[in-house]
Amino acid sequence: MSEAVATQLSGWGRTMPTVAQLVEANSSRQIADLITQSSSRGVLARGLGRSYGDAAQSGGATVIDMTTMTDFSLNPDSMSVTADAGASIDSILREIVPRGFFVPVSAGTRIITVGGAIAADIHGKNHHRDGSFGAHVTEMVVIDGLGEQHTLTPKDPKFWATIGGMGLTGIITRATFTVIPIQSSYICVDTERAKTLDSVMSSMMERDHEYRYTVAWIDSVSSSGRGVITRGDHASIAQCNSEGIKDPESYDPKNIATAPGLVPRGLLNKLSVRAFNEGWYRKHPRSRTGELQRIGAFFHPLDGVQDWNRIYGPRGFLQYQFQVPDTASDLVGVALSKLREIGAPSFLTVLKRFGPGNQGPLSFPQSGWTLAADLPAGISDLGRTLDELDERVSAVGGRLYLAKDSRQSPANFARTYPRLDEWRGIRDTMDPNHVFASDLSRRLEI
Ligand SMILES: Cc1cc2nc3c(=O)[nH]c(=O)nc-3n(C[C@H](O)[C@H](O)[C@H](O)COP(=O)(O)OP(=O)(O)OC[C@H]3O[C@@H](n4cnc5c(N)ncnc54)[C@H](O)[C@@H]3O)c2cc1C
Q: 314 CA to middle of ligand 1, Å?
């Protein structure tokens, strides 16, 4: 068995680190032994640590680093990939894109594992059309709280409790998911700049269905709520040829820069974010169609900058991501103005539309809008403002995304995930002794 090493772990936001006994995964047998021999603080699987808050850490517990189990294979005939849970989406894309396939759902970073994608039931720019990652998983192997291995399919409620279950039903060791055929490693992108939040939102309502992928960046500092909508579809070989692209299937995304170690406190402030946002808005044309962008530039622009989470300095940052139904679309504007009132500088504020949710009792996406804003920790009045927003979101039937959460209350969580008790019932059959635990599960009393 690999040796356990006391290690400080945090989420991508770098707030609230705790120390756990970190053990590298090396086999299903070893994982089962770690589960059955765990201490009272329990066990948790960790992927690449890209969840923002406290979902992938567990103070005093055994945390199993899954990123040492990384095998995967593409089956072109069934258009599927079977992968160890620790395989990264990055490594899978490097193999499958040149062979003419793409993942069914991509997050804003490719530096995540298959296990993390399933446990958070990640969504992408195509949720309005294709749903979240879990909808494309056809089978997974899970080791439960008694150390027993199960092969789960979508017919089984345990499967859906694990999709979006944040690692609390068992440890996923292997999964099969479908992939989609593509002709090139380019996306054909249309860009539209909109002067107000209303015009951003009405354009998205009207036109999102025309494209596989859409997303809007919002200038959170401007009182207009102006934004830039980008929409796209996978480019055909003919489109690439007509633009003179030489090797349209090639795919080799690279880091272009490393973010500065620790930015002095105060450099990332209202003024610098205002200047960035102004520049970012102006950089885009009022309207452009048919621009070919590489997959990396379209889906994962931040992955080009290594360790960009360090620009927030030692106090770290959080992401506030909520979902509300269409009937409460005004809450998007309310949230933006509340954050503006306290001078919260966010250069990364993203608005997307969600289609219907899936069967996962804890899966985050539901029809409507989702807004995500990166915010430096420690701004005065941030806690009070977000608590107020939680109440407004909860009152209209919305909710926060667990993979981004670091601060909501247990009461707010329970109110906004109405199928929590159903999920707990299934979890109790999979993990009767509640061996699986994280800082998030303790904070939210899951
Ligand atoms: C820049 C950036 C952009 C992002 N964009 C998006 C986005 O567009 N859409 C979106 O949905 N998310 C997005 N995310 C969030 C990210 O996709 C999720 O948090 C994802 O879960 C991270 O995967 P990971 O491998 O890093 O998992 P970790 O962060 O290590 O773990 C996340 C959860 O999964 C559990 N887990 C991990 N592996 C296993 C396993 N083998 N078995 C059981 N449970 C496991 C952990 O216990 C934990 O609860 C983004 C994050 C970043 C940093």
A: 22
Ligand 1 centroid, distance to 223 Cα (angstroms): 32
Q: Residue 20: which pLDDT band, with cuts at 50, 70 and 90?
A: very high
Q: Is the CB of 187 under 6 A from ligand 1?
A: no
Q: Which atom of ligand 1 is nearest to the CA of 350?
A: 8
| Domains recognised in the chain with CATH numbers | 69-182 (3.30.465.10), 186-409 (3.30.70.2520)
Contact 386, 400 (CB under 8 A): no
User: Is 165 close to ligand 1, i.e. is its CB under 6 Å away?
Assistant: no
pTM above 0.70, yes or no: yes
Distance (angstroms) between ligand 1 centre and the Cα of 13 equals: 12
Atom of ligand 1 nearest to the CA of 55: 49
Nearest CA among 160, 158, 149 for reference residue 36:
149
Pairing of the two strands 62-65 and 43-46: parallel
**pLDDT per position as a tens digit, 344-356:** 888 889 999 999 9
Is residue 324 lining ligand 1, measured as CB closer than 6 Å? no
In order of 54, 211, 269, the CA distances from 44 in angstroms are: 12, 38, 36
Q: Is the CB of 9 under 6 A from ligand 1?
A: no
Binning the chain into helix, strand and coil, the percentages to the nearest 5 are: 30, 25, 45
- The residue behind tokens 């707010």 is 412
- Rounded Cα distance, 105 and 307, in Å: 23
CA distance readout (Å), 195 to 281, 350, 389? 10, 16, 25
Residues 110/299, Cβ–Cβ less than 8 Å:
yes
Decide if 123 contacts 106 (C-beta within 8 A): no
- CB of residue 112 inside a 6 A radius of ligand 1: yes
Q: Which residue has the tokens 């021999």?
A: 37
Q: Is 69:171 a contact under the CB 8 Å cutoff? A: no
Mean pLDDT within 400-423: 98
Nearest atom in ligand 1 to 401's CA: 11
pLDDT category at 262 given cuts 50, 70, 90 is very low
- Which of 112, 137, 406 to probe ligand 1 with, by most ligand atoms within 8 A of CB? 112
**C-alpha–C-alpha distance, residues 25 and 67, integer Å:** 8
Count Cα neighbours of 193 within 13 Å in the Cβ-side half-sphere: 14
